[in-house]
Amino acid sequence: MKNYSSRPFVTVVITAHEGDIEYLPRCLASIARQSLSKREIEVLLAFDGKPSPLAEKVMDGAADASGITPQLFAADEATGYYTMPRNRVTPFARGHYIAPMDVDNEMAPGHLAGLLRSIRTALPKQGWPHFVYSRREYVHDEGAEAHLPKGPSPLTPWTKENVQSLLQGARFNFVDTGDMLVPLSVLHELAARTGCMWNAQVRRFGDYDLVFRMQACGFRGRAVDQVTNIYHWTGSNLQVTRQAEELATIPESMYLEAKKRGWVRED
Question: Counting beta carbons within 10 angstroms of the beta carbon of residue 192, is it exposed (0 to 12), middle (13 to 18) or buried (19 or more)?
Fold first, then answer.
């Protein structure tokens, strides 16, 4: 796999906030260990809010240690979500492919190579995939709730039936942006068809709204049977801390339909 253009091969969009910026050194180190050269990877850091002087010091130290200096995008006021910062930053990406990532997670060795190999391989009957996603390894860190998943996630093939299961929420979703690789051209095509790239105002299903709309527009996903995302559960993980609050923001019609079909767990 070679990149013959002047653009980066992959843009990694990292989302972070004041409470978890401490994990940035680990996150950038995992990107630096990928088989792609640093020239082929662009890193954008979508910070939710305005970084404190301590957060800026952590960023500088992480950049020095990894040799990767992310382009920082921040706002004066924090939203309390990863979705909005990620969606606002993604249109600035220059890479051929977009690899979203949360700052408290890691890319396993071979993460980008495995996803790139899959998305650039056409199958005889299915053709080229529009995006790919992989499996993940769940790890409990300090503050993690005991009932959250541990160990490797199962392989979840891309089917219409499996897409519906995404309505169960973040804990049961194996097609997550942290596991995905999607061409920037596909995002632009999706934007042309639906009127926006990623809705910067959507909170619940903000990440997964991308997957829902791709499926609705007929885009093909492909599951990669490889653990490429080391997913850390922490006490500051926004998918956990915001889950109860976000439940109330699901459109009522979607929630009632999901509840009727048994897709929503309320425990």
Answer: exposed
Question: Which domains does the chain possess?
Answer: 10-260 (3.90.550.10)
pLDDT band at 207 (very low <50, low <70, confident <90, very high): low
Q: Where are the beta strands (DSSP E) in the chain?
A: 10-17, 41-48, 71-73, 97-102, 106-107, 131-140, 151-152, 180-183, 221-233
Q: Which of 18, 27, 117 is nearest to 65 (CA)?
A: 27
CA distances from 221 to 30, 166, 179, 214, 239 (A): 25, 14, 12, 9, 23
Q: How long, in residues, is the chain?
A: 267
171 vs 186: CA distance, rounded Å: 27
DSSP annotation of 80 reads S
At 156-194, the pLDDT tens digits run: 777 666 555 544 443 334 456 688 899 999 888 877 776
Q: Which of 165, 163, 152 has the alpha carbon at shortest distance from 231? A: 152
